[in-house]
Design a protein that fits this description.
The chain is an alpha/beta fold. The protein has seven helices and six strands, in the order αααβββαβαβαβα.
Amino acid sequence: MLNYPDTINKLIESFSRLPGVGRKTAERFIFHVLKWPKDEVEKFSSNIKQLLAHNFLCPNCFNFSEHEGLCSVCSSPNRDTATLCVVEEFHDVQVLEATGAYHGLYHVLGGRIDPPEGITPDKLRVRELLERVKKNNAHEIILALNPDIQGEGTVIYLKNILRPLNVKVTLLARGLPMGGDIEYADEVTLTNALRGRQEIK
């Protein structure tokens, strides 16, 4: 390991905490930033501070909001309040919103169940979800979680605890992506594609 000054080592450690960023990539980031003009570095630092100072969690769905109070989705009078789409993280909200196909509300769990990583149901916003289902008189809960082992485990858990509330629980259809080739699809994807097949009208 190269013997960098403490200021650089601390920054390397900070950058390395970002997902997908190892020590070498962190070093490249830092040495690139060091080449910036001083005003660019100050702007970068200011933007980070602004991120912390002006982003709030919506008290209703736990999506990020630019203001204290409800986010733009929860405060909109044009949303279907009886439909809740459950996602893992706030950036999933942005992806679904970009489709323009969903008009209900969201609930951000804050992750998915992953016991080996210490993430148990009590670490997620499950209790808040149950409270919202009752409060909103929800008629449908859409589980929009990632289709991996942890996501599937979380889906099973949520289905079981939502069942007594007599609410319709649905799952995003999973299958072949547009432009994908069947020969390269894995068995799970093909199975989901077959199960989610629709009649051509």
